[in-house]
Amino acid sequence: MTTQNLGLELRYLKTLKAIHQSGSLVDAAGRLHLTQSALSHQLKELEHRIGMEVFIRKSRPPRFTTAGLKLLELAEEVLPRFKATEQSLLRLAGGKSGRLHIAIECHSCYQWLMPTIGEYRQHWAEVEMDFSTAFNFAPLPALSRGELDLVVTSDPTPIDGIEYIPLFRYEMLLAIAKTHPLKEKEFVIPLDLQNEILITYPVERERLAVFYEFLDPADIDPADIRTAELTLMMLQLVASQRGVSALPCWALAEYLDKGQVSAVRLGKEGLWSTLYAAIRIEQKEQPYIISFISSARETCFETLTAIKLA
């Protein structure tokens, strides 16, 4: 009796997990930094090795066969163990201890950043971590001075010695009350906001994409500006018809699902921004920094919807 070696490889498991999570071969290819052709070739190679199809062709989203589901089950078991071992080896290679003081300029990032920190601390317990918001100070100059080690920002201001590593791209949407007249529009133009109260985070106007990428180029100002520090507070104001607010798609997802507010695109093509991890160039090779950024990317694609690879 002979036994057959199917030749399963880790890359196949990563590919199937990416397809399952993204619901699209195109998005999975982008997440894995592959062309769609390379992804298709890899799938055919896998199916040739196991002698079975792994998902139903032309089904949207991809519907996995029994064999595909078995492999997905294996991926869920193996990939976390692989990642944990990989991080352990990074710690052994050096830099297992250090300091990671983080600040965020993106005030709605808690939804995915806190799970990232929780998962990260399980593997890097020796790293001294601190976390703060950036409402009352300028975090990027503090990063440059060495007072911080990483800043999450959507405003990559050029500063000597600072490198911006893209995490993901996301769309800003205009949150409006359920009965707002703009609800009937496919998208809004800058002129539509001329008579609106715009609710924003307490951040300088020149650092808000709704101004520098949408309103200012059209030389349009809202009727008034109101600030609030918490996303929940902003959306309560929106729901009670006391203004509108431009917020990241993921920050709105829960409230849209519950029917508490509505949303409309900003411009025909949408208003897209990129979120970055800013670090000092001198620290970019530190294993615990590399691991945190990797964990942040992975967590955001697992927990957020409607984001793209940067």
TrEMBL record:
Occurrences of domain HTH lysR-type (ranges): 8-65
Transmembrane spans: none
Cellular component per GO, a single term: cytoplasm
One MF term in the entry's GO annotations: transcription cis-regulatory region binding
Entry-linked InterPro entries: LysR_HTH_N (IPR000847), LysR_subst-bd (IPR005119), MetR_PBP2 (IPR037406), WH-like_DNA-bd_sf (IPR036388), WH_DNA-bd_sf (IPR036390)
Pfam families tied to this protein: HTH_1, LysR_substrate
Subcellular location: Cytoplasm
Record has rRNA processing as a keyword: no
Gene3D superfamilies documented for this protein: Periplasmic binding protein-like II, Winged helix-like DNA-binding domain superfamily/Winged helix DNA-binding domain
Keywords of this entry: Activator, Amino-acid biosynthesis, Cytoplasm, DNA-binding, Methionine biosynthesis, Repressor, Transcription, Transcription regulation
Top-level taxon of origin: Bacteria
GO biological process, any: methionine biosynthetic process
Family: Belongs to the LysR transcriptional regulatory family.
Protein known as: HTH-type transcriptional regulator MetR
Native organism taxonomy: Bacteria, Pseudomonadati, Pseudomonadota, Gammaproteobacteria, Oceanospirillales
